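Q: What residues go here?
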């Protein structure tokens, strides 16, 4: 059974709620990456977080994250795969954080 992405959220950061470890707090939800420079692109986003919530997870998996420019297929970010061991039942959601530093977006568009 392959892990399935339930949610993929871009934000400034994510933290577990100290009063309820089953609750995550998402800070600075990102819906667009914009530039205030002229010309606006390329734009570098100094740091952001990607929260991936998966289900159907069991055993071991190698997970990695890629950011791909939709128009060209160009990969603008790729991290080294992480080996993860899943211990909860496959029906439970599992959250994994990725921090992205100094990612360059070469042009406006969908990624």
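A:
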């Amino acid at each position: 059974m392959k892990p399935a992405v339930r949610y993929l959220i871009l934000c400034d950061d994510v933290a577990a709620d100290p009063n309820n470890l089953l609750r995550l707090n998402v800070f600075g939800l990102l819906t667009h990456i914009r530039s205030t420079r002229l010309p606006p692109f390329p734009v570098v986003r100094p740091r952001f977080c990607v929260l991936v919530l998966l289900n159907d997870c069991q055993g071991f998996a190698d997970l990695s994250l890629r950011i791909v420019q939709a128009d060209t297929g160009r990969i603008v970010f790729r991290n080294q795969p992480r080996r993860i061991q899943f211990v909860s039942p496959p029906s439970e959601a599992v959250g994994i954080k990725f921090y992205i530093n100094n990612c360059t977006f070469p042009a406006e568009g969908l990624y």
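A: Context that may help when evaluating the design: The mean pLDDT is 93. The two ends are 27 Å apart (CA to CA).
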